Amino acid sequence: MATLIFAVTPGFEVGGTVFKPEQLAVLGAAVGADARIEMTTFKQLYVEMQEERAEEAKFKLQQIGLEVYPAGFYTKSLITCNFCKGAEEAGLSTARALDEAVAGLAAPSPLKIGYSGCALATGEPLLKDIGVVKMRDAYDIYIGGEAKSLKAAPGFLFMERVSEDQLIPVVRGLIQYFQDHGKKKEKFSKFIERVTADALRAAVVE
Which InterPro entries does the annotation name (predicted)? Predict the structure, then answer.
Protein backbone atom coordinates (compact mmCIF):
# COMPACT_ATOMS: atom_id res chain seq x y z
CA MET A 1 0.00 0.00 0.00
CA ALA A 2 1.36 3.43 -0.96
CA THR A 3 2.46 5.74 1.83
CA LEU A 4 3.02 9.50 2.04
CA ILE A 5 5.43 11.43 4.27
CA PHE A 6 4.71 14.94 5.52
CA ALA A 7 5.99 17.20 8.31
CA VAL A 8 4.05 18.53 11.29
CA THR A 9 4.97 21.35 13.68
CA PRO A 10 3.04 23.35 16.30
CA GLY A 11 4.68 26.62 15.31
CA PHE A 12 6.28 28.60 18.11
CA GLU A 13 5.43 30.92 21.00
CA VAL A 14 7.32 32.47 23.90
CA GLY A 15 8.78 29.37 25.51
CA GLY A 16 9.65 27.64 22.26
CA THR A 17 8.17 24.94 20.05
CA VAL A 18 5.64 22.99 22.13
CA PHE A 19 3.05 20.37 21.19
CA LYS A 20 -0.05 20.48 23.38
CA PRO A 21 -1.34 17.15 24.79
CA GLU A 22 -4.64 17.50 22.93
CA GLN A 23 -2.77 18.06 19.66
CA LEU A 24 -0.75 14.89 20.15
CA ALA A 25 -3.94 12.99 20.96
CA VAL A 26 -5.58 14.15 17.72
CA LEU A 27 -2.37 13.44 15.81
CA GLY A 28 -2.33 9.83 16.97
CA ALA A 29 -6.00 9.32 16.17
CA ALA A 30 -5.81 11.04 12.78
CA VAL A 31 -2.81 9.19 11.37
CA GLY A 32 -3.74 5.79 12.78
CA ALA A 33 -1.94 3.01 14.61
CA ASP A 34 -0.10 1.85 11.50
CA ALA A 35 1.56 5.24 10.86
CA ARG A 36 5.21 5.96 11.60
CA ILE A 37 6.13 9.19 13.41
CA GLU A 38 9.72 10.42 13.64
CA MET A 39 11.08 13.39 15.60
CA THR A 40 13.55 15.32 13.43
CA THR A 41 16.51 17.47 14.45
CA PHE A 42 14.73 20.56 13.12
CA LYS A 43 11.76 20.38 15.50
CA GLN A 44 9.31 18.81 13.09
CA LEU A 45 7.53 15.47 13.29
CA TYR A 46 7.76 13.42 10.11
CA VAL A 47 4.61 11.36 9.60
CA GLU A 48 4.52 8.40 7.23
CA MET A 49 1.02 7.03 6.69
CA GLN A 50 -1.34 5.55 4.11
CA GLU A 51 -1.51 7.91 1.17
CA GLU A 52 -5.24 7.51 0.67
CA ARG A 53 -5.93 8.83 4.20
CA ALA A 54 -3.26 11.53 4.30
CA GLU A 55 -5.31 14.52 3.09
CA GLU A 56 -8.04 13.86 5.63
CA ALA A 57 -5.43 13.57 8.40
CA LYS A 58 -3.72 16.81 7.34
CA PHE A 59 -7.05 18.64 7.48
CA LYS A 60 -7.73 17.40 11.01
CA LEU A 61 -4.26 18.43 12.16
CA GLN A 62 -4.60 21.92 10.71
CA GLN A 63 -8.01 22.27 12.40
CA ILE A 64 -6.34 21.97 15.83
CA GLY A 65 -3.65 24.52 15.08
CA LEU A 66 -0.83 22.33 13.80
CA GLU A 67 1.13 23.34 10.73
CA VAL A 68 1.67 20.82 7.93
CA TYR A 69 4.52 21.00 5.41
CA PRO A 70 5.96 18.76 2.71
CA ALA A 71 8.88 16.55 3.74
CA GLY A 72 12.14 16.20 1.85
CA PHE A 73 13.91 18.78 -0.30
CA TYR A 74 12.18 21.87 1.05
CA THR A 75 12.90 24.80 3.32
CA LYS A 76 12.06 23.63 6.83
CA SER A 77 9.87 25.63 9.18
CA LEU A 78 11.80 28.24 11.13
CA ILE A 79 13.95 26.85 13.96
CA THR A 80 13.82 29.38 16.79
CA CYS A 81 15.04 30.21 20.26
CA ASN A 82 12.61 30.30 23.21
CA PHE A 83 12.07 34.08 23.00
CA CYS A 84 13.17 34.35 26.63
CA LYS A 85 13.42 38.16 26.44
CA GLY A 86 9.73 38.41 25.62
CA ALA A 87 7.66 38.47 22.45
CA GLU A 88 8.26 42.11 21.52
CA GLU A 89 11.95 42.43 22.41
CA ALA A 90 12.87 39.08 20.81
CA GLY A 91 10.84 39.76 17.67
CA LEU A 92 8.26 36.98 17.85
CA SER A 93 5.99 38.64 15.27
CA THR A 94 8.91 39.05 12.87
CA ALA A 95 9.86 35.40 13.32
CA ARG A 96 6.29 34.35 12.54
CA ALA A 97 6.25 36.46 9.38
CA LEU A 98 9.60 35.01 8.30
CA ASP A 99 8.36 31.47 8.91
CA GLU A 100 5.25 32.09 6.79
CA ALA A 101 7.42 33.50 4.00
CA VAL A 102 9.98 30.68 3.77
CA ALA A 103 8.64 27.40 5.16
CA GLY A 104 7.80 24.71 2.61
CA LEU A 105 9.63 26.20 -0.39
CA ALA A 106 11.22 23.67 -2.75
CA ALA A 107 15.03 23.62 -2.66
CA PRO A 108 17.88 21.59 -4.20
CA SER A 109 18.50 20.10 -0.74
CA PRO A 110 16.75 20.45 2.64
CA LEU A 111 17.29 23.99 3.93
CA LYS A 112 17.34 24.89 7.63
CA ILE A 113 16.78 28.47 8.74
CA GLY A 114 17.36 29.53 12.34
CA TYR A 115 16.23 32.57 14.29
CA SER A 116 17.31 33.93 17.67
CA GLY A 117 15.89 36.99 19.34
CA CYS A 118 19.12 38.26 20.87
CA ALA A 119 22.91 37.95 20.74
CA LEU A 120 22.88 34.92 23.04
CA ALA A 121 21.73 33.00 19.95
CA THR A 122 20.35 30.09 21.98
CA GLY A 123 18.50 28.79 18.93
CA GLU A 124 21.93 28.03 17.39
CA PRO A 125 21.29 30.02 14.17
CA LEU A 126 24.99 29.93 13.27
CA LEU A 127 24.72 26.16 12.77
CA LYS A 128 21.92 26.52 10.23
CA ASP A 129 22.12 27.09 6.47
CA ILE A 130 20.75 30.58 7.07
CA GLY A 131 20.73 32.13 10.53
CA VAL A 132 19.05 35.32 11.72
CA VAL A 133 20.03 37.05 14.96
CA LYS A 134 18.03 40.04 16.23
CA MET A 135 20.37 42.78 17.40
CA ARG A 136 18.16 45.38 19.13
CA ASP A 137 16.27 47.05 16.26
CA ALA A 138 18.00 45.25 13.35
CA TYR A 139 19.06 41.78 12.23
CA ASP A 140 22.36 40.10 11.40
CA ILE A 141 22.23 37.30 8.83
CA TYR A 142 24.67 34.40 8.84
CA ILE A 143 24.97 31.73 6.15
CA GLY A 144 26.77 28.46 5.57
CA GLY A 145 26.48 26.82 8.98
CA GLU A 146 27.14 23.07 9.04
CA ALA A 147 26.19 21.12 12.17
CA LYS A 148 27.03 17.64 10.89
CA SER A 149 30.02 15.72 9.53
CA LEU A 150 33.71 15.92 10.45
CA LYS A 151 33.83 19.36 8.85
CA ALA A 152 31.14 20.92 11.04
CA ALA A 153 31.54 24.70 11.25
CA PRO A 154 29.56 27.82 12.17
CA GLY A 155 28.19 30.09 9.50
CA PHE A 156 29.77 33.44 8.71
CA LEU A 157 28.30 36.92 8.84
CA PHE A 158 26.69 37.64 5.48
CA MET A 159 24.89 40.92 6.15
CA GLU A 160 24.55 43.00 9.30
CA ARG A 161 22.13 45.65 10.53
CA VAL A 162 19.42 44.50 8.14
CA SER A 163 16.14 46.32 8.80
CA GLU A 164 12.93 44.49 9.63
CA ASP A 165 11.46 45.53 6.26
CA GLN A 166 14.41 44.04 4.39
CA LEU A 167 14.81 40.84 6.40
CA ILE A 168 12.29 38.69 4.51
CA PRO A 169 13.33 39.95 1.03
CA VAL A 170 16.99 39.14 1.81
CA VAL A 171 16.25 35.64 3.10
CA ARG A 172 13.85 34.95 0.24
CA GLY A 173 16.50 36.21 -2.17
CA LEU A 174 19.03 33.73 -0.79
CA ILE A 175 16.55 30.88 -1.17
CA GLN A 176 15.60 31.98 -4.68
CA TYR A 177 19.24 32.06 -5.78
CA PHE A 178 19.74 28.58 -4.33
CA GLN A 179 16.63 27.38 -6.19
CA ASP A 180 17.85 28.86 -9.46
CA HIS A 181 21.53 27.89 -9.31
CA GLY A 182 21.90 25.01 -6.85
CA LYS A 183 22.59 21.45 -7.95
CA LYS A 184 20.38 18.56 -6.89
CA LYS A 185 21.34 17.37 -3.38
CA GLU A 186 23.98 20.10 -3.05
CA LYS A 187 24.36 21.30 0.53
CA PHE A 188 23.91 25.02 0.98
CA SER A 189 27.40 25.40 2.50
CA LYS A 190 28.94 23.74 -0.58
CA PHE A 191 26.77 25.90 -2.81
CA ILE A 192 28.14 29.04 -1.16
CA GLU A 193 31.70 27.83 -1.71
CA ARG A 194 30.97 27.20 -5.38
CA VAL A 195 29.15 30.43 -6.27
CA THR A 196 30.91 32.64 -3.65
CA ALA A 197 29.38 34.87 -1.02
CA ASP A 198 30.05 37.93 -3.17
CA ALA A 199 27.83 36.57 -5.93
CA LEU A 200 25.09 35.83 -3.43
CA ARG A 201 25.39 39.28 -1.91
CA ALA A 202 25.21 40.93 -5.33
CA ALA A 203 22.13 38.88 -6.26
CA VAL A 204 20.34 39.73 -3.02
CA VAL A 205 21.12 43.44 -3.26
CA GLU A 206 19.95 43.51 -6.88
Answer: NO2/SO3_Rdtase_4Fe4S_dom (IPR006067)
